[in-house]
Amino acid sequence: MVLSARSLPRALQLTLAVIKPDAVAHPVMLEALHQRILEDSFLIVRCKDLVWRRQDSERFYAEHSGRFFYQRLVEFMSSGPMRAYILAREDAVRHWRDLMGPTKVFRARFTAPSSLRAQFGLTDTRNTTHGSDSVESAQREIRFFFPEFCAEEWMEKEEPLFRSGQIQYDHQKQIHTPLPQN
Ligand code: DAT
Ligand code: MG
Is the pTM of this model over 0.90? Predict the structure, then answer.
């Protein structure tokens, strides 16, 4: 049988997703966000709770230094615990950006009312989630949050298992893991 390019399953893409301190501060909200990730068919490759020092925040958001909201943003992002995820899905970058909704919470409420920022966001700064905006920034941001994670190795060894569904959800670790191989 000849398979056309369209019928071949496409490789999964990785993206970085972060639940920001405003949401992590509320366990019920954090749990609801985690469930939305699972319901939206994302596979959770890694999950990590962490707190940023101010320098981490400044380094991560260096592209925005000089903008009027920069100090507020830097302070907020180092104000308490966050949760970072590596998510896998076809077109993960775009799907996660769509699920988050627009940057500004009030715009999100009007234009994407079921998005995460519309439903959980408080202000333009405290907008609940972060998501990489391109494949290149996803690679850079995954390295920033998960320096111990080797994306090339994951793509080679685990992506085929994730893509073909040979995985299980580990309720304790709250991530997907490959099924034990015989
Ligand atoms: P996004 O997080 O949607 O990728 P961004 O990269 O333009 O948006 O900005 C990074 C963060 O900076 C954003 O999540 C919240 C904050 N921010 C951006 N624009 C803002 C504004 N006009 N007022 C207040 N905070 C803002
Ligand atoms: Mg951005």
Answer: yes
